[in-house]
Amino acid sequence: MNDRVDSVAAHLRDLIGVHGVGGLEMADDRLKRKEATAPLAAFLGSVFGRPGLILHGQTAVKQRKERVQRFQEDEQVPFFVLSLKAGGAGLNLTAASHVIHFDRWWNPAVENQATDRAFRIGQTKNVLVHKFVCRGTVEDKIDQMIKSKQQLAGDFLSGGAARNCP
After folding, report:
1. How much is the pLDDT for 6?
2. Within 10 Å of residue 45's Cβ, how many Cβ atoms?
């Protein structure tokens, strides 16, 4: 059974999105800006048995380009942990087979933009999108708010909002 799991895991390429500071609310500004990507990447490295890549707002432009290219070309890289804001602009990550939103962001457009990194011209495989939400948490409330915003936007754009007004 473990051999089958290892074989499947060897062919999966995951993008894991975190929304940013991950609860690091310290007085020091440097800690406020520090992303929560490193601890998650360390954990995932132990799960996959090899390291992946990290991209966050403090990643230098040169390193950013090198990491994106490595994820795209090196099939031995099992995952790429990105902060939503750093990973949501101008990236083409078609090597991914999964997009995992590890913690939800209140703005669905930001999440959608980050998801779209895997759905670019040149994508040849099916991509599954996963959004982690635990009941009774802040993420659960964010998820409910996102659904409400999407419903409101859909109603407005289809003219449904006007029908619901007295």
Report:
1. 41
2. 15
CA distance 158 to 71: 39
Q: Domain 2-132 belongs to what topology?
A: Rossmann fold (3.40.50)
Residue 51 one-letter amino acid? P
Separation between Cα atoms, residue 136 and residue 155, nearest integer Å: 27
66 torsion bin: left (phi>0), alpha (psi -120 to 50), beta (else): alpha
pLDDT in tens, 94-147: 888 888 887 777 777 878 888 888 887 777 888 888 888 888 988 888 889 888
Q: What is the share, in percent, of the chain residues with pLDDT greater than 90? A: 13
Q: What are the structural domain ranges in the chain? A: 2-132, 136-166
Beta carbons within 10 angstroms of residue 66's beta carbon: 13
Cβ atoms within 10 Å, residue 41: 19
What residues have CB less than 8 Å from 140, skipping those under 6 apart?
133, 134
- 76 is written with which tokens? 């031995």
d(CA 98, CA 82): 13
Q: In whole numbers, what is the pLDDT of the chain averaged over residues?
A: 75
